[in-house]
Design brief:
With 209 residues, this protein is mainly beta. 8% of the residues lie in helices and 29% in strands. It is built from three helices and eleven strands, in the order βββαββαββαββββ. The strands form two sheets. Strands 1, 4, 5, 8, 9 and 10 form a six-stranded mixed beta sheet that branches. The chain has a five-stranded mixed beta sheet with strand order 3-2-11-6-7. The N and C termini lie far apart (62 Å). The model has no long low-confidence stretch (mean pLDDT 96). The structure holds ligand MTE and molybdenum atom. Molybdenum atom binds next to loops.
Length: 209
């Protein structure tokens, strides 16, 4: 007897959401050019509906002095590749919420990057213990094309919800669509239920468009 022609397929990786495939290596994907990092003028701001009603900002040294955490997580691009098992290090979004508390009534945040890229998140997704303002992957500082000096990582959502080159977090009392959410992508972006496009949204998943 030779080998059966009907070998079972290898079981797919349980970390893969439906419709995704494993990507080896780490492609860089973004809209527009890679910004140049300018240390003296760089800051990371928290603005909008803060509890103090004041804007907060960290310069590069100040941000790098914040307490750091590590999260192992997968990256799922809506174009269907997933980069599995990344070890991200950085400042947890929950720490940002502790250091700069939102005002009562804040329900969403907008995370802003260089050149006006943005992504909106429910406060609960931003506050999730896995959500990180990442500076390193697998022990190495992010390269420019992957978001140096800081990118957001939101493991439980498609990766467009994680802006590279983050410059600000806006606390909001109502939801508002970010860059891709205004351009036909799903407001919530849960890869496990394949929330890819805005036409799949149920009433209440996002603000009217
Ligand atoms: N500033 C910015 N961040 C971005 C994007 C972008 O176009 N601009 N693209 C997003 C998308 S769609 C993906 S899949 C990931 C890709 O991250 P990577 O290039 O590190 O793989 O970055 C996200 N963050
Ligand atoms: Mo993506």
């Amino acid at each position: 007897m030779g080998q059966s022609k009907y070998e079972p397929l290898p079981p797919s990786d349980p970390r893969l959401p439906p419709g995704q495939r494993v990507q080896r290596g780490w492609p860089a994907l973004h809209y527009g050019p890679v910004p140049r990092f300018k240390p003296p003028s760089w800051d990371l701001q928290v603005f909008g509906a803060t509890a103090s009603a004041e804007k907060h900002s960290w310069d590069f040294a100040g941000f790098n002095a914040l307490p750091r955490t590590t999260v192992v997580a997968d990256l799922h691009c809506v174009t269907k590749f997933s980069v599995l098992g990344n070890t991200w290090t950085g400042v947890s979004a929950a720490a940002v919420l502790d250091l700069v508390p939102p005002a009562p009534g804040v329900t969403h945040v907008m995370v802003w990057a260089e050149y006006g890229y943005s992504a909106n998140l429910r406060l609960a997704d931003f506050a999730d213990p896995r959500t990180l303002l990442a500076t390193h992957r697998n022990g190495e500082a992010l390269t420019a094309e992957h978001g140096f000096p800081v990118r957001l990582v939101v493991p439980q959502l498609y990766a467009w919800k994680g802006p590279k080159w983050v410059r600000a977090v806006e606390y909001m009392r109502a939801d508002r669509r970010g860059f891709w959410e205004e351009r036909g992508y799903h407001n919530l972006a849960d890869p496990w239920s394949e929330q890819r496009y805005s036409y799949q949204e149920d009433p209440g998943d996002g603000p009217l468009r």
